[in-house]
Amino acid sequence: MIHLRTAEEMDVMARGGAIIAGLLEELPAHIRPGISTASIDAFCERYITSHEGAVPAFKGLYGFAGSVCISLNQEVVHGIPSPKRILVEGDIVSVDVGVRLDGWCSDSAWTYPVGEVSEAANALLRVTERALDAAVEAAVAGRHVGDIGAAVVKTVEGTGYGIIKELVGHGVGRDVHEEPQVPNIGRPGHGPLLRVGMVLAIEPMLSAGSPGIRTLRDGWTVVTVDGALTAHFEHTVGITAQGPLILTALPRPVGAGSRSE
Ligand code: MG
Ligand code: MG
To answer: From the CA of 147, how far away is ligand 2's center (Å)?
Structure first.
């Protein structure tokens, strides 16, 4: 069942989402060669729980051990933080964060360069972020879930990158993962109708090689079969009468006005 949320419920998710946005903005100052993924996890947990009532939504979810998922290079998602996993100059690292606040969830992910990275890695990050932007813009009431995936496909066309098809975005609400599934491929006008009140985690995942994936023996970490670099960007987005509203963004400063470009 696809739930429709009130503006008040979206406001709570936006408060949790702003905690994630603040964390994702602070992470670049923390991410550097030589630190472990466990130390990033501890930083994230401290940051989240320093906000009254907020807890890391992924901790214990389906038995996950970390507070956040941290995936390096060829790892797509669900990397388990570890003190033995040390960042190296040139890595790219994706940090996927869920927050539960007052019973409502928000979900966002970002992929960061570690020190100086290759031009190929930078290009992958840029295109994946652009795919997220395009997908969010397509989340308009009256259109369909397939329009979101189609926007990802259109952005990626001609780049040679693979779209990870076996992993999808999802509804977000009382639970982190709700209906509907939000694939990163699709056809305009196909799939469930987008309606005011739907809240979706939109999360393109791209591979610099082929899109095939497999899960490591740890039962969690999903990697590209060919070992190609991957990137993952995600926002939780509310569908409103005024258009898509990113709930995992920092609140705009009062008086700042809207961006005009
Ligand atoms: Mg996520
Ligand atoms: Mg998600």
So the answer is: 18
